Amino acid sequence: MTTLTSNSEALQNQAARSVEGVHRSTDFHWVGDGFHVATYFPSSKLSSERVSPFLLMDYGPPHDFAPLERGKRGVGWHPHRGFETVTLAWEGAVAHRDNAGHQGVIGPGDVQWMTAASGIFHEEYHEERFTRRGGRMHMMQLWVNLPKKDKAAPPAYQPIPSSRIPAVPLADGGTVRVIAGEYAGEHGPARTFTPITLLDVELNRGSRLRLALPASYNVLAVVAEGGVRAGRHTAEAGELVLFNNDGAEVEILARDASHVILLAGEPIDEPIVQYGPFVMNTVQEIEQAMLDVGRGKFGRVPE
């Protein structure tokens, strides 16, 4: 994993990255009947190589749900193979269950990191008490690719409560929550197969996020709220900043009070073939995944 420093003088001596482009998310759509999201990637303007090791990001800004007397909202049982799903919660509560025996609920500030790898079925619904009383949901889901050598790993599940996530205050206002990787000497609790930095950042107006990362890392900054400046570019809520791989320092300045999710990682230099919930390296492996689901090799789906 990369080592980051909080020494401002050292950072000033590093070459700052330029910005390759600013990209707008899609229009909003529903995932199941419980998650109202916009997709930041994949997109026709962002190649898989430029966002690797990440595959997909759906962001659901605050959305109010009325109480539901019976039934549930969300996404029913479905399979995955070849990657990981990462869910961040800011408001509301989501219940997860999978057929590898894992289950849990994430609420404000929590993170759920599920490794599908060799194959898993899971379901995601609004937590029952939240469903009955109604309320505001604010979530994000990220898909993280796995290298070929790890796609056959056993399924796993990391429940990461907010209490385990280090929160680093910024000198000029704001907070950096370290979910994966390292920032200012604090290490995120998430275990990753390849080097990844995932930061959940709140910036006051005029405050600045600066961090050192290897130039080989792909770096994306998703603006969830507010507006920021990076190099000569500006980005508003609903936009993603893609940095060039031409420097060892990333810098973001908040033009307004802003919420930014920073994604960085070592690219996985392997072919990607995706079909729905499967992400493999070849078409033949996708076909095998479909056969394995039909033959029960992903395990039994619970009642």
How would you concisely characterize the structure shown here?
This protein is mainly beta.
Notes on the protein architecture:
- This protein is mostly beta strands.
- 9% of the residues lie in helices and 49% in strands.
- It has a seven-stranded antiparallel sheet, with no helix packed on it. It has a seven-stranded antiparallel sheet with strand order 2-3-4-11-6-9-12. It has a four-stranded antiparallel sheet with strand order 5-10-7-8.
- Residues 1-13 have low confidence and may be disordered.
> What's the helical proportion of residues?
under 10%
What is the helix tally?
Answer: 4
Let me know the average pLDDT.
Answer: 94
Shape: globular
Low-confidence stretches: 1-13
The SSE order reads HEEEHEEEEEEEHEEEEEEEEEEEEEEEEH
Topology, number of strands: 26
What share of the residues does DSSP label as strand, in percent? over 45%
**Radius of gyration of CA atoms, rounded to a whole number:** 19 Å
Find the structural class using helix and strand composition: mainly beta
Distance between the termini: 41 Å
Strand order of the largest sheet: 1-22-19-24-17-14-13
